[in-house]
Design a protein that fits this description.
This is HNH endonuclease. Keywords: Endonuclease, Hydrolase, Nuclease. The chain is mainly α. The chain folds into 2 domains: about 1-80, no CATH class; about 95-165, no CATH class. The chain has helices spanning about 25-35, 40-50, 60-65, 70-75, 95-105, 140-145, 160-165; strands at about 120-125, 135-140. Helix 1 (about 25-35) crosses helix 2 and helix 1 (about 25-35) crosses helix 3.
């Protein structure tokens, strides 16, 4: 492994609609990160990708780039440092009334892709279950926002950044 300072999250790579890195982005980075990629452990490669693309890469993309199972990617831990956000279970559950208010406000469609099925209400920031802190996402986009895992790193730091992310 090349000895270098930890990279800052990459915000300039080509990304999908929701801002996530592609397999090509991941493979390209791994090729520059390690002198001998074949000698680098899968664990080291996974941690490098999680750090480099900080919350902007899905488990499936990491698994494809590293050539391993998605379940293995989930087992390889990396905790973000100070100033980074990691998803935690919201402190309050969403009442049925508030959930319906949020679904109605968002036109009963995913605010990211426009899907009208498998809708879920997402806590934008940990804390209150109020409409201003909630958004409607389909199951796929909801999981993507969590970095491909329900316990993934969030790719935004504020409510405004969340809306910028889903508005493209």
């Amino acid at each position: 492994m090349v000895d270098e300072p930890e990279a800052e999250p990459d915000t300039t790579s080509p990304k999908s609609e929701l801002g996530f890195a592609s397999v090509a982005d991941a493979e390209s980075y791994l090729g520059t990160r390690f002198d001998d990629l074949d000698a680098a452990s899968k664990k080291d490669q996974i941690v490098a990708l999680k750090k480099r693309f900080y919350g902007k890469i899905t488990r499936k993309t990491v698994a494809e780039a590293v050539d391993c199972a998605g379940s293995y990617v989930s087992k390889v831990g990396w905790s973000p440092g100070e100033g980074e956000t990691r998803w935690e279970r919201p402190s309050e559950e969403v009442s049925e009334t508030v959930r319906n208010d949020v679904l109605d406000r968002d036109g009963r469609e995913c605010v990211a892709c426009g899907a009208e099925t498998n809708l879920q209400v997402h806590h934008i920031r940990r804390g209150e279950s109020t409409p201003s802190n909630l958004a409607t996402l389909c199951r796929d986009c909801h999981k993507d926002v969590h970095g491909g895992s329900w316990h993934g790193v969030l790719p935004y730091q504020s409510v405004d950044e969340f809306w910028d992310l889903v508005d493209g």
